[in-house]
């Protein structure tokens, strides 16, 4: 977690990669939904694991999601020799919305 850099300054407060967010197993059982914006303090690997537990057949199977993320991180490390957490952070930055202005024109009589 020490050498992970967040290049987008707008996301620095919302991606938990600081030393206090460093966990060995992404299963903290923290109550991150109790207050507004507290889920930003959740470790980023645990947020990825929680996002994988969607759809009816995967609800509540956190250990399965943890195992999937662990194997994916091992594959990323073996194939690219990069820090897997840095790869996850870069993917989150690429998936974020870009600011843009749009012109709305209504056609009428």
Automatic annotation (TrEMBL):
<dbReference type="GO" id="GO:0003735">
    <property type="term" value="F:structural constituent of ribosome"/>
</dbReference>
<dbReference type="InterPro" id="IPR036823">
    <property type="entry name" value="Ribosomal_uS7_dom_sf"/>
</dbReference>
<dbReference type="GO" id="GO:0006412">
    <property type="term" value="P:translation"/>
</dbReference>
<dbReference type="InterPro" id="IPR020606">
    <property type="entry name" value="Ribosomal_uS7_CS"/>
</dbReference>
<protein>
    <recommendedName>
        <fullName>Small ribosomal subunit protein uS7 domain-containing protein</fullName>
    </recommendedName>
</protein>
<dbReference type="GO" id="GO:0005840">
    <property type="term" value="C:ribosome"/>
</dbReference>
<dbReference type="InterPro" id="IPR023798">
    <property type="entry name" value="Ribosomal_uS7_dom"/>
</dbReference>
<dbReference type="Pfam" id="PF00177">
    <property type="entry name" value="Ribosomal_S7"/>
</dbReference>
<comment type="similarity">
    <text>Belongs to the universal ribosomal protein uS7 family.</text>
</comment>
<keyword id="KW-0687">Ribonucleoprotein</keyword>
<feature type="domain" description="Small ribosomal subunit protein uS7">
    <location>
        <begin position="19"/>
        <end position="108"/>
    </location>
</feature>
<keyword id="KW-0689">Ribosomal protein</keyword>
<dbReference type="GO" id="GO:1990904">
    <property type="term" value="C:ribonucleoprotein complex"/>
</dbReference>
<dbReference type="GO" id="GO:0003723">
    <property type="term" value="F:RNA binding"/>
</dbReference>
<dbReference type="InterPro" id="IPR000235">
    <property type="entry name" value="Ribosomal_uS7"/>
</dbReference>
């Amino acid at each position: 977690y020490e050498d992970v850099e967040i290049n987008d300054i707008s996301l620095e407060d919302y991606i938990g990669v600081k030393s206090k967010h460093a966990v060995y197993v992404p299963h903290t059982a923290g109550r991150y939904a109790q207050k507004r914006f507290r889920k930003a303090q959740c470790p980023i690997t645990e947020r990825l694991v929680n996002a994988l537990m969607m759809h009816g057949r995967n609800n509540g199977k956190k250990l399965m999601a943890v195992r999937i993320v662990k194997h994916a991180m091992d594959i990323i490390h073996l194939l690219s020799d990069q820090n897997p957490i840095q790869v996850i952070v870069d993917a989150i930055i690429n998936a974020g919305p870009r600011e843009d202005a749009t012109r709305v024109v209504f056609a009428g009589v």
